[in-house]
């Protein structure tokens, strides 16, 4: 198949390699012409996943129109909060019946929309044309071809199967699922819980605390998911527990690392200055909190992460607030 990958950051770059290794012809769009030129000339992205050879089937351009032209698969790999603006520029170029694949793990500020909802609205495409790829997929490990699995979620299960076939490689194993809501929420909320995990790690808290954060973090994710119509089973799968555990445990996670800065006492601004990559949970925690409140769902860990990130609350105060909530049945 012909595929366009829009966004040449860490995950867009690794995903272009997956698509190429799976036998597709891939055009990777980079915002900066010099990055696109370097990828064409050297076969590597000089800014992300340095040294990773993308393979002969991957080329690059700084023209999104050129990348999208004739593409049956259009992969979106930009930061969640810029997607709507980006799609405004790209919508007119999309081929009828192409499949749009979302790699993003965030919730839009203001609208509280999931990324597939933003794609439907801003890309002017039918919901069954949107597939979500989500799972424990740290780009740095996948670039090294370390075995990983993922989920392709789409309401049109035949389309999910076509995408599954198009991204299967000896090191990347996709499963299909028709629960788009659950897969997207799992990916977005785990970033917020990974911030909490990073904060706890930097505070010197131990494995009981960390296991509790993962388990209760998953419980609040599933609570919101069920309120939005997700299948609760999705949260025990790769896009739920799998991604949550993978992200929290990994020093490669940008969200966990950002949390560690906060846990060491840095302010939001200081943590942002120390971070080069997108840590989606920092903004999405606001949108997830608002989404939960509007559905009457309690998300105590998300609430406290938002307070630490955006209201300057001391992490120790946030921990005390979580531990002093009223006791209840599990
Ligand atoms: N890196 C990873 O391991 C994984 C990331 N993801 C998700 O993939 C999405 C993309 O993240 P990464 O590639 O990791 O981020 P990144 O921080 O590595 O790269 C972000 C890319 O977006 C571009 N960008 C920044 N502002 C932009 C704008 N206004 N318009 C267009 N492009 C812009 C940057 O130039 C860069 O190419 C996020 O939602 C993230 O949660 C999902 C799975 C794994
Ligand atoms: O989503 C990811 C792994 O599945 C990457 O997590 P980070 O964005 O925290 O690095």
UniProtKB/TrEMBL annotation:
Q: Which InterPro entries match?
A: 6-PGluconate_DH-like_C_sf (IPR008927), 6PGD_dom2 (IPR013328), G3P_DH_NAD-dep (IPR006168), G3P_DH_NAD-dep_C (IPR006109), G3P_DH_NAD-dep_N (IPR011128), NAD(P)-bd_dom_sf (IPR036291)
Where is sn-glycerol 3-phosphate annotated to bind?
Answer: 105, 135, 190, 243, 253-255
What's any GO biological process attached to this entry? phospholipid biosynthetic process
Going by the UniProt record, its keywords in alphabetical order are:
Cytoplasm, Lipid biosynthesis, Lipid metabolism, NAD, NADP, Nucleotide-binding, Oxidoreductase, Phospholipid biosynthesis, Phospholipid metabolism
Q: What is its main location?
A: cytoplasm
Task: Give the residues annotated as active site.
Answer: 190 (proton acceptor)
Q: Which parts of the sequence bind NADPH?
A: 10-11, 31-32, 48, 105, 139, 254, 280
Q: Name one Pfam family in it.
A: NAD_Gly3P_dh_C
Domain (Glycerol-3-phosphate dehydrogenase NAD-dependent C-terminal) spans 179-319
Q: In which pathway does it act?
A: Membrane lipid metabolism; glycerophospholipid metabolism
Xref: Gene3D superfamilies: N-(1-d-carboxylethyl)-l-norvaline Dehydrogenase, domain 2, NAD(P)-binding Rossmann-like Domain
The keyword NAD appears for this protein: yes
Q: Which residues bind NAD(+)?
A: 7-12, 139, 254
Annotated Gene Ontology cellular components are: cytosol
Q: Which GO terms describe its molecular function?
A: glycerol-3-phosphate dehydrogenase [NAD(P)+] activity; NAD binding
EC nos: 1.1.1.94
Name all Glycerol-3-phosphate dehydrogenase NAD-dependent N-terminal domain ranges. 2-158
Q: Where does substrate bind?
A: 105, 254-255
PROSITE patterns in the cross-refs: NAD_G3PDH (PS00957)
Reactions listed under catalytic activity:
sn-glycerol 3-phosphate + NAD(+) = dihydroxyacetone phosphate + NADH + H(+); sn-glycerol 3-phosphate + NADP(+) = dihydroxyacetone phosphate + NADPH + H(+)
Compartments it resides in = Cytoplasm
Could you tell me which HAMAP family the record lists for this protein?
NAD_Glyc3P_dehydrog
Q: Outline what the protein does.
A: Catalyzes the reduction of the glycolytic intermediate dihydroxyacetone phosphate (DHAP) to sn-glycerol 3-phosphate (G3P), the key precursor for phospholipid synthesis.
Name the family the entry cites: Belongs to the NAD-dependent glycerol-3-phosphate dehydrogenase family.
**PANTHER family according to UniProt:** GLYCEROL-3-PHOSPHATE DEHYDROGENASE (PTHR11728), GLYCEROL-3-PHOSPHATE DEHYDROGENASE [NAD(+)] 2, CHLOROPLASTIC (PTHR11728:SF1)
Q: What is this protein called?
A: Glycerol-3-phosphate dehydrogenase [NAD(P)+]
